[in-house]
Design brief:
Strand order of the largest sheet of chain A: 30-33-34-40-39-38-37
Shape of chain B: rod-shaped
Helix content of chain A: 25-40%
Structural class of chain A: alpha+beta
Strand content of chain B: 15-25%
Number of strands of chain A: 44
Structural class of chain B: alpha+beta
Oligomer: heterodimer
Shape of chain A: elongated
Largest interface: A-B, 99 and 95 residues
Largest sheet of chain B: 8 strands, mixed
Order of helices and strands of chain B: HHHHHEEHEHEEHEEEEHEHH
């Protein structure tokens, strides 16, 4: 909402400065978005007269002017063709800033001639006007006066944001009323008296039966023999200032009243209306209206239109039609003042995609009395400017039901806001805003909001009005009462899991990424997702049209982008939601990562090592350990999901629960994502990992073994397809009690042991429980291990 | 006993001239070994008369002690020399680079959420969560956003394909539906924050189709707007680490709060840079208000006895302002150079005891 300070002063008797007014607007909830104060940029510019003009001796196009600057003669070099003796024009003195050319004027020497300032064109002042030469002022312009004073430009423009509930402030008067209630001046009276008119309107309304609900009130008047032309200068200036292009007096009046009083009007050229009736009705399906913005709109039967017997020519509350619109030659005017159902206007405007100032105001709700209460004022306003004769009012509609009664206990203000405010002060605020306050017996009030405040319908609204005017700076500062003397964590046990995982993974060398929760459906399908129920009706693009079934594809995209930037070693992870359906429980938390390039960097001592499947297996184990699951309890089910390399991947099982998967990404998937290097990935479903029961804070007693541990090595030859984990299981099973650690230190395949075989060397650590092992005991354990492995893995001890 | 004196002088001289430990060991064997010269002198004692034996024995033992002492002394010297020589040969160029290691950073959004959590943790808040695919009812209706409200339009809200009942699930446009879920499942008092992902159908330089919000909700006996004011002022000052940070409350409008307030913090702009703190300008930082009685009713609370406040803030915006990140879209691009530049070390934990600025 834009207006000028002088415009505001039409309604507000105030001695406040621009700054005070703007601070007041903010404190009332009207955020000031911009203040354009022409005086700020143009205050240095003053009126001078050219006394004498001589050609520049060194330049054909330049002139050397002698300029009278309020008694001082200045020499100024000027190139304007219209510079001539006797011309009154505008001087930018030395030291002034010229906004149109972004220059500070300096005393200068132009081809040997001194120049002490600049004579200005309109464009150099960023003003509209003929800029072929310097500004030409009238004879009576007074030398030495400020140009902005002379041109009446000293009127700052204020732009404020109006919250959607405050339709009443989409007019200057509404803003003035708010300011006056808060003590920034006094609201001037508005002559709202009736205007009886001198003849019967030859045009009258007919409201369709099925529209009564959405057309509570419409009034109209006929204006005979008006003269349309340019609007008065003062009005043109104001409309220009707020960004409304002046068109013709009659059109400009409707725009002016809309901004001045927040009251949109619609003007018909009465001579273009066929017949004596304007029908307010629902549109025919496919009924076409060629609107004032020179576009044709096709209506549907739920839309409200107004027209004559030739058809609709006004989309009610949104935009009028060309056929019956005002032209420069309009002689007879029919002026509509209406209140329509805001929801209907909004719906129609949305379907037709018309954003008009009228729609903006209609859909935020208008003063329900205004078709009647402002009719007289508006009629006189039209007559004052365009002359002519005014008819009696013609109207339809039962009236807007805006009256409400709210039972209000002034005590609620303190209860909701903590502000102590005397009851009289509270009721004065409400009265200043136009509310009617009646005191009941029991300390409660009956409060009736005014016709223009259709946003207020409850006690809390009244409290807001009261404290808004009293000022939010009166709010006390009260700390929340303590809930507990013992500090409570903000995270639940479950919420802490991603926090811990994040730190662990970053410590392990992976960068944390945040990617979108949606992705391309075509990619989602590759990762067991992409079902229709999870696709967006209105995606930003087809690249982002489906909720992600996994984070991995998004990370592959990110990896690809980084590779295209020339990065080779990439380690990225993300912790975030994935979606398997639309139900609440279908959203789970995943922790996924992708790695490519070197996992260990090379240098002068050692060679680099590329990422492989065991790096991501390790990360999955670390994830489990971080979530208090021992990695010893994990089983690998091969192969992993289909997007992995079938021979280099696994699903990680904890008993029967799949908690995630890891492996090298399948080459076909890499091709889909245009990635040319091998990529390892892991994908853990955090929700699937069982929550470990919270142990007691105290630890079990530390009992170190008093006896020597012993190490033994074994090498077994077994079939290639027997897994290492089954070998370790067989070893462990033979001496469960004694084996305290177990590891593989060599894997060999080759000629020495024959085709289809492999050799695995195992190192175990044995820890006795009650006495140091004897040689015989150790021999027994060794024999048991060998026997167990031979039996379970069909292996032989390597000689 | 001329022999023994001679032997003593000879060995002492040999010892002092021994050039390395090996030579010294040979001298030790030659003197004190089983067949060494001094041992031989000792073995002669048996053939002597008792008196002479005692006298000679004392002399020989004294010589043996002297030699042992000299041997030990020399040994220490030579050992030290040998070690020095060895260390000299082991010298390496420690200016060579150390082994390369992998390192990484936490995303600034995670860091910011931890900071927010730390501050509200101190005020007794806990985190609540909710699904990102929401019902129309939770996201709009229960929050007093009427069916015709423009926010529900497709140019603002993402919708999924209608389900069997014809309902279109929405991607939550704010974290506020978690207010509804919490109030419907729990009796007051409530003190929660809700950090999480939110979605709006916007994509340009200053809007992302996905972004993060943190909602707050406090419901309890006599919780009024003064509590809201103190809570949010304390938060803003703690978060930006500016004790005297000016914080301004402005009346505003949200369908789910009444009265509503927008919160601005003070700032100044110099040379194109932004400085948070006392200055001549204001920055909008969050929205807040007393929970609208209609919302309380929608959750089964009695507004005449139950009240409280709610607030919501954009996490990206907070991170951008605090850490000087200029472009919203870069948050989701996963550019490693950006992540490294704006990210945080994993051991740099945000907490009130460790500091959050």
């Amino acid at each position: 909402m834009k207006f000028t300070l002088n415009w505001l002063r039409d309604h507000l008797d105030t001695s406040c400065s621009l700054n005070e007014i703007c601070e007041g607007l903010v404190s009332l909830g009207h955020e000031v978005e911009e203040i354009i104060d022409p005086a700020k940029n143009l205050s240095d510019f003053r009126i001078v007269e050219i006394r004498d003009v001589n050609p520049h001796p060194e330049a054909d196009r330049l002139k050397v002017c002698s300029v009278d600057d309020n008694g001082t003669l200045l020499q100024i070099v000027c190139g304007a063709p219209n510079a001539r003796a006797g011309l009154k024009t505008v001087l930018a003195p030395v030291g002034s800033y010229v906004p149109g050319i972004d220059i500070v004027i300096k005393k200068s020497n132009i081809r040997g001639q001194e120049s002490n300032g600049m004579l200005c064109a309109f464009s150099e002042l960023e003003l509209d006007g003929n800029s072929d030469g310097i500004i030409e002022l009238a004879e009576h312009a007074e030398i030495g006066t400020s140009y902005i004073e002379h041109a009446d430009l000293n009127d700052p423009i204020i732009e404020i944001a109006i919250t959607p509930n405050r339709g009443d402030c989409l007019g200057v008067r509404g803003i003035a009323r708010d300011l006056s209630a808060a003590g920034f001046g006094k609201l001037k009276s508005l002559d709202a008296s009736e205007c009886s008119g001198v003849f019967d309107s030859p045009i009258h309304w007919e409201l369709a039966q099925d529209c009564k609900e959405i057309v509570p009130r419409v009034t109209g008047r006929f204006f005979r023999n008006v003269s349309n032309g340019d609007c008065p200068n003062w009005m043109e200036k104001r409309l220009n200032a707020v960004g409304q292009r002046p068109i013709s007096a009659l059109v400009d009046i409707t725009n002016y009243i809309m901004i001045d009083l927040g009251r949109p009007l619609h003007a018909f050229d009465a001579d273009k209306i066929n017949g004596d009736t304007l029908f307010i009705r629902r549109a025919e399906n496919e009924e076409k209206i060629f609107a004032l913005n020179e576009k044709e709109y096709t209506c549907t039967s739920d839309m409200l239109v107004i027209g004559d017997k030739d058809g609709a020519d006004d989309i009610a509350g949104i935009m009028g039609g060309q056929r019956t619109g005002i032209s420069n030659t309009t002689k007879n005017l029919f002026l509509e003042i209406a209140v329509f159902d805001p929801v209907n206007v909004a719906t129609t405007g949305r379907s037709l995609n018309i954003h008009s100032d009228a729609r903006y105001r209609f859909e935020r709700g208008l003063d329900g009395e205004s078709p009647d209460s402002l009719s007289g004022y508006i009629a006189r306003f039209v007559q004052k400017i365009c002359g002519g004769e005014i008819s009696h009012v013609v109207s339809v509609g039962d009236g807007v039901k805006w009256q409400r009664k709210i039972t209000f206990k002034p005590e609620l203000t303190r209860q909701l806001t903590g502000i102590e405010l005397a009851h009289t002060e509270q009721s004065n605020i409400l009265k200043d805003l136009g509310f009617v306050v009646k005191h009941n017996q029991d300390n409660s009030w009956e409060v009736m909001p005014p016709a223009w405040r259709n946003d207020v319908d409850g006690e809390a609204d009244l409290v807001e009005e009261i404290v808004r005017i009293a000022g939010y700076d009166k709010l006390p500062m009260v700390s929340l009462p303590a809930t507990s003397v013992v500090a409570k964590p903000v995270y639940s046990h479950e919420q802490l899991r991603p926090v811990l995982l994040r730190r662990m993974l970053v410590s392990a060398g992976l960068y944390e990424a945040v990617t979108f929760s949606f992705m391309a459906q075509s990619d989602a399908v590759l990762f067991d997702g992409g079902e229709e129920a999870l696709t967006l009706v209105n995606p930003i693009s087809s690249e982002l049209d489906c909720m992600r079934p996994s984070i991995v594809p998004n990370l592959l995209q990110a990896l690809s982008r980084n590779m295209n930037r020339g990065t080779k070693n990439i380690r990225l992870f993300e912790i975030g939601p994935v979606f398997h359906g639309t139900k609440e429980t279908d959203q789970t938390l995943s922790c996924s990562g992708v790695l490519s390039g070197d996992f260990q960097y090379g240098d002068w001592q050692s060679n680099a090592r590329s990422v492989d499947v065991f790096d991501v297996k390790k990360i999955m184990e670390q994830i489990c350990e971080t979530l208090s699951i021992s990695s010893h309890s994990l089983m690998m089910k091969t192969p992993g999901p289909k997007w992995f390399h079938p021979g280099q991947s696994a699903t990680m099982m904890l008993g029967k629960i799949a908690i995630g998967s890891f492996g090298m990404i399948h080459p076909e998937i890499l091709r889909e994502f245009d990635i040319k290097a091998p990529v390892a990935a892991f994908d853990c479903s955090i929700n699937a990992v069982p929550k470990t029961r919270k142990k007691s804070v105290a630890r079990a007693l530390f009992k170190p073994s008093a006896f020597q541990t012993v190490e033994r090595d074994f090498a077994f030859v077994l079939d290639q397809n027997v897994s290492a984990s089954s070998l370790l299981r067989a070893v462990k099973a033979a001496a469960k009690e004694q084996i305290s650690d177990i590891g593989i230190f060599d894997v060999y395949e080759g000629d020495e042991i024959g085709h289809g075989k492999k050799s695995i060397a195992v190192k175990i650590q044995l820890t006795p429980s009650d006495a140091t092992f004897t040689e015989a005991e150790l021999q027994q354990i060794s024999n048991d291990i060998i026997k167990s492995v031979e039996k379970q893995c069909l292996a032989t001890l390597r000689g | 006993m001329a022999d023994i004196d001679y032997l003593k002088e000879k060995f002492l001289s040999d010892i002092s001239q021994a050039s390395d430990l090996e030579q010294l060991n040979e001298i030790k064997i030659a003197a004190l070994g089983k067949k060494g010269a001094i041992s031989e002198e000792l073995s002669k004692l048996g053939k002597m008369a008792a008196d002479a034996r005692r006298e000679a024995g004392q002399i020989i033992n004294s010589v043996k002690q002297d030699l042992n002492y000299a041997l030990n002394e020399r040994h220490a010297t030579l050992a030290k020399q040998a070690l020095e020589k060895k260390l000299e040969t082991e010298k390496i160029d420690v200016s060579l680079p150390s082994r390369p290691s992998v390192h990484a950073k936490i995303h600034p959004l995670s860091r910011t959420m931890e900071e927010i959590s730390a501050i509200f943790s101190d005020m007794g808040f806990v985190i609540a969560e909710g699904p990102e695919i929401e019902t129309d009812e939770h996201n709009f209706t229960a929050l007093n956003i009427p069916p015709e409200h423009p926010a529900r339009q497709e140019h603002d809200t993402f919708y999924l394909k209608p389900d069997e009942s014809g309902e279109r699930p929405v991607l939550r446009t704010h974290t506020s539906p978690v207010q509804i879920r919490t109030m419907r499942s729990k009796e007051p008092p409530i003190r929660i924050i809700v950090p999480g992902r939110t979605y709006r159908s916007d994509h340009d330089a200053t809007h992302s189709p996905m972004f993060h919000q943190c909602e707050g909700l406090v419901i309890g006996p006599n919780i009024h707007m003064g509590h809201l004011k103190a809570t949010l002022i304390d938060f803003c000052r703690s978060f930006f680490g500016v004790v005297e940070l000016p914080v301004r409350f402005r009346p505003s409008y949200f369908p789910f709060t009444e009265p509503s307030a927008e919160v601005d913090i003070g700032c100044s702009r110099e040379d194109g840079g932004l400085k948070i703190g006392a200055g001549d300008d204001w920055l909008e930082i969050l929205g807040s208000g007393m929970v609208n009685p209609r919302v309380l009713e929608n959750c089964g609370y009695d507004p005449s006895t139950t009240q409280g406040f709610a607030f919501g803030m954009g996490i990206e915006r907070l991170a951008m302002l605090k850490y000087g990140i200029p472009d919203l879209r870069t948050f989701y691009d996963s550019d490693l150079r950006w992540l490294h530049h704006y990210g945080f070390m994993p051991h740099d934990v945000a907490g009130l005891h460790t500091g959050i600025v």
